[in-house]
Design goal:
The chain contains 13 helices and ten strands. The chain is of the alpha/beta class and about 325 residues long. The protein has two domains: about 5-255, NAD(P)-binding Rossmann-like Domain (Rossmann fold); about 270-320, no CATH class. This is Rhodanese domain-containing protein. It comes from Xylella fastidiosa subsp. multiplex.
Amino acid sequence: MSVDSVSRKHDRIPFIRFLGVYLLFQWRRQCARLHRARIALYSRRFGQWIRLRAAISADQSAPPSVAAVVPASATQTPTNTPCILLIDTVPPRPDRDSGSLRCHHLMHLMVCMGYKVVLHCQERMPSAAEVMALRAIGITTTAVAGGFPSWLLTNPERYCAVVVCRYHLGLSWLPLLRAFVPDSLCILDTVDLHHLREQREAELRNLSGLRAAAAITRRHELHAISCADLVWVVSPVERDYLARLLPQARVEVVPNMHDMVETIPPFVSRHGFLFVGGVVIHPMWMQFAGCCLRFSHASVNGYLMHSCTWWVPDWLKRYRVSR
């Protein structure tokens, strides 16, 4: 579909303005990708970033039969039901990281509150298994991934709110949403404040390149926050931090969400240690390794370390670490 034909679908957006929005969207999107690659390079995780990009490219699209699937709940929902669009890089993987688990529970909570939720993935289409898992909780997915979201022009009044996950998507999406869906509430879900994590890693490892890249991340992240109507953070500490830097921003705490456990075993019947954190993030796995070494040197009999993450390096398994 050409830029000219798309722009004529919506009389409220003149062609020149549409072209400007289109070019800025693509430019900011590519700049965000380059910056993320720079962060991976400076933190010496470039190989991991390349493998992640390769995995995403290998599964760039779902089978045609999957892309056309529409949940039954969506067809039974009244046309006047308020709809929320959620934009993320890839479908949530609640078995791999806490951010995905939080996103999964957030979408389910929105459905339970009576909203229709549509998930759009920037990097790739959901797989067949992911579509089925999303459909089980009443989530619809868009039939496209990546590229320019011209599908927003077909029904701009459809969405009462749009949730954009993470600052690097917010940089390109929030200005576009202002032009295409000006009446929608634009929410930026920071998931966590990336520049703080990068600054701490740079200080811990004394990497000047990463410190400079973290300063760029800080500028980008604060700009994305200032463009949103509402900002979600995961802790009161982050909320207070942003209140000092951007007092005009409306910031709310939306913490991690977990299923309630009805019965909890008493302390005397428990064993082992639980580490909550992603060991693929350098400061976290250094803390994790420190815990393993301390318990090993202390000769704690029968200890077993459990990590709440989707991957454990082979060198940590010698310390009786399980996932």
